[in-house]
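Researcher: Please predict.
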Amino acid sequence: MNENFCRTLSLLRHEKGISQRAASASLGVSQALLSHYEKGAREPGLAFVTRACDYYGVSADYLLGRTLMRDGALLAPEDLHDAENDKDNRLRGNVAALLHKKLLLGAISLLFDLLGQTRDKTLIEEASAYLGDGVYVLFRHLYDASGENPDTVFPLPGALFPLYAASDMALREARLSARLMPAAGKKRPEDALPPLSHDGLMADYPQLAKSLLLLLQQAGDRIRENG
């Protein structure tokens, strides 16, 4: 069973605000077995998956990580809002937020265009998970800041999530690196990429490259200062 299933199963229980003991009783399994399912130590059968879908009110595709939609609808790219195409790209708040939003949107758009050219689905998923962890951490800090939002939404306690997120990001980074390493007799994913020099990027992405190159410069300066 994939890791998305284990994570989603645990998250749904926490969202419902119930203990493993209560959930296991309703799902017709022992607490120990449910714990194994949530940790990925054991793989459930179809009967359990069906009961869990009914109990939590989600589709099997959602529980198995095949879609982000709880009703099982499969998302196509056109179903997602593209903030980059907003007419005026306004944000509540100051100009700095708008500038940083545009900077990140441009850089990420270029990155995923490059990843798409590799046609390596695993590489794309690992990159998305890596960046998603960063978004999770930032939103989680904002969510926890008021002290009034329910703490049952997230499966990890507030004191633990930064450590777990950092660990997952390190794992994703290692997988990305391994995926891009040359393999004997195999075509490398990066072989499908255009030249990534300054001039090559500006030629292929005259607008987006500005955002990426500025972001790289800023990040490089921060790393030097803090190193």
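Model: Residues 80-226 form one domain.
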